[in-house]
Design a protein that fits this description.
Elements lengths: L6 H9 L6 E2 L16 H15 L14 H12 L4 H4 L3 E7 H15 L5 E6 L3 H9 L3 E6 L11 H11 L5 E5 L12 H14 L2 E6 L14 H8 L5 E5 L11 E7 L3 H16 L9 H11 L1 H32 L10 H5 L4 E3 L4 H11 L1 E2 L5 E3 L8 H12 L1
Parallel strand pairs: 1-10, 3-4, 3-5, 5-6, 6-7
Antiparallel strand pairs: 2-8, 7-8, 9-11
Bound molecules: 4'-deoxy-4'-aminopyridoxal-5'-phosphate.
4'-deoxy-4'-aminopyridoxal-5'-phosphate binds next to α5.
Amino acid sequence: MPADPILGMTAMFLEDKFPKKVNLGQGVYRTDEGKPYVLSSIKEAEGRVASELQSGRTFKEYLPIEGDATFRKLSAELVFGAGSAALREGRVATMQTISGTGAVSVAASTLRLVGGFTEIYLPEPSWSNHAQIFGAAGLEVRSYPYLDKRTGTTLDFEAMHEALATMVPAGSAVLLHACAHNPTGVDPTPEQWEVLAGTFAKRGLLAVFDSAYQGYASGDLDADAASVRCFEAAGVLPIVCQSYAKSMGLYGERVGAVNFVTASAAEAAAVLSNVKQRVVRPVYSSPPLHGARLASLVLGDPALSAAWRAELLVMAGRVRRMRAELAAALVRLGAPAPDGGRWEHLTAQIGMFAYTGLSAQHVDALRERYHVYMTRDGRACMAALKPDDVEYVAGAMNKVLR
Ligand code: PMP
């Protein structure tokens, strides 16, 4: 099989012997020094988890099929917020999952096996794994317009809305990125989310939110969940997939959740039991323990939670700084861009990825001639860029664009 478009790039990068090589292919955070980063709130939580274990207060027993009860409750509260009517009324079925990929995968299998859905609509483009996940679950993958084909770097809201309001059959399942759309970094505005929520409610569309960047996009946990909350307030009953890979830097611990908002507490209980018995038990029985304990402590302890929020601001701020520095360097060099060389899309987009507008040929040339790696759709991870590499990357981009 051909290599994965994202992970295959990392494998090529690791084999590259060139000393100044730069990997902007995979979505990971690096410090200004280019080092992986473990959040101090997570280090503190690790200490507490270790001492609980050493002192015999906790064990390594299996979690239930649905995962850790405290983690599930706190995770649902994080995304739906204190004002959520669905949470207050016990209408949300939450499963702990194997990070965000597992959340989307459980959602996909549930749509197919429990909901009887046969297709799903994805934005064009979307995270490359989405089509594989839904396809593997046996769903037909269709698409709706998202990125403006004329600019290549902005949202075509009219085309998106028109498709969802008229072309997509009523009652269809539709995937939405809650914030920091991957790969484009282009999100609807709050007003556009309101319009979409109204259309989903009117047409009975099932919203499947992928929320992989809450708190990491803007630095504000509530702002990044506004899309989900606006749908819930409009009476849409969404499915919401969550990942703590980026926001808590827990990539390899595989911590996530999927939430099914339903019409009643009885329905939530029925959904939960179906997901447990028909989707999760035959695949992996129960989710991993350690990362969920860490996340529970960070979500539930006021001091750790405050420390985490401060670290989110630092991470989101560093990403914004890298966007601005790269854009400024490209402008200084006079590098050609679709917007007449202003490179404003780099700073207007949000989240860890910049959708540069580079073609697959440009990306191949960048990699072959300058050892700068990004995915072939022109997506570059700004969270992995370090200040010392900005001039080199901008220079290389400028050369391949001319
Ligand atoms: N959805 C989207 C849109 C993502 O960008 C990612 C991370 N690349 C994920 C889900 C899930 O990643 P993980 O399984 O590492 O949580």
